[in-house]
TrEMBL record:
Domain Histidine kinase: 243-442
Swiss-Prot/TrEMBL catalytic activity: ATP + protein L-histidine = ADP + protein N-phospho-L-histidine
Localisation: Membrane
Keywords: Kinase, Membrane, Phosphoprotein, Transferase, Transmembrane, Transmembrane helix
Domain of life per record: Bacteria
Record-level GO cellular component terms: plasma membrane
Protein name, as recorded: histidine kinase
Main location group: membrane
Pfam assignment, any one: HATPase_c
Enzyme Commission code: 2.7.13.3
Length: 450
C-alpha cells in the first residue's frame, strides 16, 4: 500500500471516529438541553398546581388545575400529584396509579428531579418540590410533583440525531477530501525527489540541488555528498588505472624493441611470439585506459556513429585485412548515442576488425532507430559463426580461430553493457551480423548544475 493511501486511510478512520464521538457528544448535549427545558416547563406547571390549592371541607383541593389538557386525559403524558400527611391528590391523567416518589428528605422549597416508572409502563421525568403551606391553607408540609412522559424527550433526541446525521456525513466527506488534497500537496516533493533521482541515474542531472522543503533537504544533501564522494573515488580510480597503464607502456615498448632485435638476428619465430604477446598486453592496457576515461565522462557522453565509422574505415582501408574489401557505410549523419567517442570507436573498431579479418569481399555498416535505442550493425560476407559459439565468443580470450587475442567481441560487449545496451550476434547469410544496441544520447539542454 502506498504511503499516500495509508495516510489517507488512517485519516479517514480518524475522521469517522471523531464524527462518531462528536455525534455522541452532541446527542448528550442536546438531551441535557431538552431535559433542562422540560424541567423548566414542569417548574412553571408545578407553580400553577401550587397556586391553585385551596383548603376545603375535604382538605386540600386543587380548584384551579393547570390549563394543559393532558393533565385531564387518562395517561395523557402530563401528571401532577400532592402528598399531605399520608393523603394523596393526583391528576385525572394518572387514572388509577400514583407516582411512586422515592423516600427523600427535602428542605423547604427544595427541588429534586427523578426518573421514575409511570402509568402505562412508561418512564417519567418527575420534578418534586417540598413546601410549607401558609396559614390560610392550614399550614403543614406537602410534597408536590409534576411528571411528563420521557418518550417525548427520547423522540426529540432521535429526531435531532436523524437531522444531524446527513450534515455529519457531509462534514466527514469534506474533511476526507481536504485531507486527500493536503496529502497530495504535502507528498508532491517526494514525487519530485524520485524524478530528480531518476534524472541523476540517466545523466539529465548531476546533483540534487537545494531547492527542497526543509524536511527533505537533509536527504538531498546526503545524496549530493554521496555523489561527490563517488565522483572523487571514480577520479582516484581513473588516475590509478592511468598510472598503472602508463607504467606498463615502457616495459611493453622494451619488449617490442627486444623482439625487433631478435628479428634482426634471425630469430623471427621468437620475435613474433614476443610481439604477439606485447600487442595483446598493449591492447588490454589501452582498453583499461578507455574504461577509466569513460567512467569520468559517463554523464556527458555523446558520439556520432557516422563520424566514428568514417574514421575507422579510413584506418582499416590501409591494413592488410581491409585494403581489398568493399566498405559500405550507410549510417545517417547526426545520429547520437550515449557513449564517448573513444568508447564508441573502441567498440565499433573491435567489430570492424573482426569483420575485416573474416570477410571475403564486403563489409556493410548500417544503423536504425529502435525507440530509445540506436542499432548499429556491422555485417560481413564471411563464413559466419555457429550459433552454439556466439555467446562464448563475447567472453574474454575466446576466439573463433587462431587469429587475434580473443578480446575484441568481449570488449565491444562490455562497452555496450556499461552504457546500458548490448551486443547481438546473428548470421547474415552469408557471414556474420554484429549489432550494438546502444541508448540514444539525451538532450542535455536542461541539465541541473552542480
Amino acid at each position: 500500500m502506498s504511503l499516500r493511501l495509508r495516510l489517507a486511510l488512517a485519516g479517514a478512520i480518524a475522521i469517522f471516529v471523531a464524527m462518531g464521538l462528536a455525534a455522541l457528544g452532541l446527542a448528550q448535549l442536546f438531551a441535557a438541553h431538552v431535559e433542562r427545558r422540560a424541567v423548566a416547563e414542569m417548574s412553571v406547571q408545578l407553580d400553577q398546581v401550587l397556586a391553585g390549592l385551596e383548603r376545603g371541607p375535604q382538605g386540600l383541593e386543587l380548584t384551579r388545575p393547570p390549563a394543559d389538557p393532558r393533565f385531564t386525559q387518562p395517561y395523557g403524558g402530563l401528571y401532577w400529584q400532592i402528598e399531605e400527611a399520608g393523603s394523596i391528590q393526583r391528576s385525572r391523567s394518572l387514572w388509577d396509579t400514583v407516582l411512586d416518589l422515592p423516600v427523600d428528605t427535602l428542605g423547604d422549597g427544595a427541588v429534586h428531579v427523578h426518573w421514575l416508572p409511570g402509568p402505562d409502563d412508561k418512564d417519567l421525568l418527575v420534578l418534586e418540590r417540598s413546601i410549607t403551606l401558609p396559614a390560610r391553607l392550614g399550614g403543614g408540609a406537602v410534597r408536590a410533583a409534576v411528571g411528563m412522559t420521557a418518550s417525548e424527550l427520547i423522540e426529540a433526541r432521535r429526531d435531532f440525531m436523524a437531522d444531524l446525521a446527513p450534515y455529519l456525513g457531509l462534514l466527514a466527506m469534506a474533511l476526507i477530501a481536504a485531507g486527500w488534497a493536503q496529502l497530495t500537496v504535502g507528498l508532491r516533493p517526494l514525487r519530485a525527489l524520485g524524478a530528480r533521482i531518476a534524472a541523476l541515474r540517466t545523466g539529465r542531472a548531476t546533483r540534487m540541488g537545494d531547492d527542497w522543503p526543509v524536511e527533505l533537504r537533509p536527504v538531498a544533501t546526503e545524496i549530493d555528498d554521496l555523489l561527490a564522494a563517488r565522483d572523487a573515488e571514480t577520479e582516484r580510480a581513473r588516475a590509478r588505472a592511468a598510472d598503472l597503464a602508463h607504467g606498463l607502456k615502457t616495459p611493453l615498448q622494451a619488449l617490442m624493441g627486444e623482439a625487433a632485435r631478435l628479428r634482426r638476428e634471425g630469430a623471427a619465430e621468437q620475435a613474433e611470439g614476443i610481439e604477439d604477446t606485447a600487442r595483446a598486453m598493449r591492447r588490454t592496457v589501452d582498453r583499461e585506459l578507455v574504461r577509466a576515461r569513460s567512467a569520468a565522462r559517463a554523464l556527458d557522453a555523446r558520439a556520432d556513429p557516422a563520424l566514428v565509422a568514417d574514421r575507422l574505415i579510413a584506418v582499416l582501408r590501409r591494413t592488410p585485412d581491409g585494403e581489398d574489401l568493399d566498405w559500405r557505410q550507410s549510417i545517417s549523419p547526426g545520429l547520437a548515442v550515449a557513449l564517448d567517442d573513444a568508447d564508441l570507436a573502441e567498440a565499433m573498431g573491435a567489430l570492424l576488425e573482426n569483420a575485416a579479418r573474416h570477410a571475403r569481399g564486403r563489409v556493410v555498416l548500417s544503423a536504425r532507430e529502435d525507440g530509445a535505442r540506436l542499432l548499429l550493425s556491422v555485417a560481413d560476407d564471411g563464413p559466419g559463426i555457429p550459433e552454439t559459439k556466439r555467446e562464448a565468443l563475447m567472453r574474454r580470450h575466446v576466439r573463433a580461430d587462431e587469429a587475434g587475442t580473443g578480446l575484441g567481441l568481449s570488449i565491444a560487449s562490455e562497452i555496450a553493457q556499461a552504457a546500458g545496451g548490448m551486443l547481438l550476434l546473428d548470421n547474415a547469410e552469408p557471414g556474420l551480423k554484429a549489432t550494438l544496441a546502444l541508448p540514444r544520447a539525451r538532450d542535455t539542454g536542461h541539465r541541473v548544475a552542480d
